[in-house]
Amino acid sequence: METAPKKTATKPATKKVAKKTTKQAQVGFEESLWDAANKLRGSVESAEYKHIVLSLIFLKFISDKFEVRQKAIIAEYGDEYIDMVDFYAMDNVFYLPEDARWSYIQANAKQGDIAVKIDTALHGVEKNNKSLAGALPDNYFSRLGLDASKLSALIDTINNIDTIANQNEKTEEDLVGRVYEYFLGKFAASEGKGGGEFYTPKSIVTLIADMIEPFEGKIYDPCCGSGGMFVQSLKFINSHNGNQKNVSIYGQEYTNTTYKLAKMNLAVRGISGNLGDIAGDTFFKDQHPDLKADYIMANPPFNQKQWRADNELVDDARWAGYPTPPTGNANYAWIMHMISKLSEHGTAGFVLANGSMSSNTSGEGDIRQKIIENDLVDCMIALPGQLFYTTQIPVCLWFISKDKRGNNEKGLLKRRDRQGETLFIDAREMGTMVNRTLKELTNDDIAKITQTYHIWRGEELTTETAKPESADKEQSAQKEQSENKEQEYKDVAGYCKSATLADIKANDYVLTPGRYVGAADIIDDGIPFETKMSELSQTLYSQMNQADELDNAIRKNLQALGYGEERDGAKRNDS
């Protein structure tokens, strides 16, 4: 069995300041590329054409890097080394045979058999690079029967993308990763319900990563989709001056095409990860049976029905000590699977449907009670609705911790003893609408939630402002004391509550934050009650008078049409 690597690094003190860019600068060429991709609509199913576009972008990206490296090899070693794979691998560049290079595809874009040539190119890439085994579509373009002219137009558009790093992007991975992120979001939106199978909205992924702080160790996602959780974890590390070499990535995905999507998504960013040898069902074909992860991030399928037969996985080791999860809903099977995968100091953050917080169906309440009694629930967050492309319903975040004890060990983040406590956060009123049907959490929303959680855990929130080394030490001490006081956790009515196990037991082991945080305090505006009542009364009288005038006008119009009011069998006529 694998053992989790010992943590030796502390949380970096400063955070990089991101460059400010306009929205137009961020999506400039992505939008033109999206328009070109949309021309394929009607030729293929909407769920298919993302694989076409992203595969071609991937091929363009690795080809551009190959050409740059090839020129460097010629300059440094000579022509005789340009077809030696090791000379490319040593610089983390994929070797490409001639018929697998973008220049070859572009030169043959107008040929009637261009789909076959693309399939051949992708096969050649996999054949010459073991790390990409199983990552690329297999005879995909040929089977789809694409219109050659539309495919050629898409190739021409992709050809205009300069994937080589420039002044706005630090690396090629940043640039192409940006394209992938943009396209995955757009494809998820266009596919609606099906889009949720491979994409979790960025604001939710960012929130989970910022909450659990995956600085070092093993990161695992048992239903990884297109790999968004891994990408955001490494973004988090880089933004806090960490070292992504200190983490290792493990994942699994059920759908074969999405599994390939995830491998490509990681490859274009230069991320090495173990997603298993094949795509497979996490419950029945666990690709990492001996894994103990330090961090788990996941967005399992909501309320997955009939995930096992009545006689299957009844005595599975993953739910040892707990009732067996019911066959009609996999929510608690996912929870138990993730708990079983955590290391002794591990933390998990995952998305589930709101029903998971209170359901008592088929023994789910008994499982939840046991999890709570084992003191594994660290934090529960109720999120607003409309965050997902796939559903309008509100969802929740669970945060599980295998170790709530305080620690002062060198190399570990300093945290207080939280045994017997759970933090509840009600964030249902947060978020902003980005269009008619979709909402997202803002950076300020994410910062507020994560700071609340980290202060509650007893972490010291660092700043980039250095403390004075001499001068007024007394003033410095007072300032530090004031800052520490501001970082003390406090319950806020309507928003957050630190509850004990006794509190949760008194609420029948229901984990819905609204039960604990209560209603928000009403802000006193300073206007005396008498004044308010007088103003409201006058407003009401005015509205009643207007209603009378409207009633009279309507009555006269009806009478003019011959429909006067009847009283005692006779029509009333006021005229």
TrEMBL record:
It comes from the Bacteria. One of its GO terms (biological process) is methylation. Residues 172-522 form the DNA methylase adenine-specific domain. This is site-specific DNA-methyltransferase (adenine-specific). It catalyses: a 2'-deoxyadenosine in DNA + S-adenosyl-L-methionine = an N(6)-methyl-2'-deoxyadenosine in DNA + S-adenosyl-L-homocysteine + H(+). Its EC number is 2.1.1.72. Belongs to the N(4)/N(6)-methyltransferase family. Keywords: Methyltransferase, Restriction system, S-adenosyl-L-methionine, Transferase. Residues 30-158 form the N6 adenine-specific DNA methyltransferase N-terminal domain. It holds the Pfam family HsdM_N. Residues 460-488 are annotated as: Disordered. GO terms for molecular function: DNA binding; N-methyltransferase activity; site-specific DNA-methyltransferase (adenine-specific) activity. The keyword Protease does not apply.
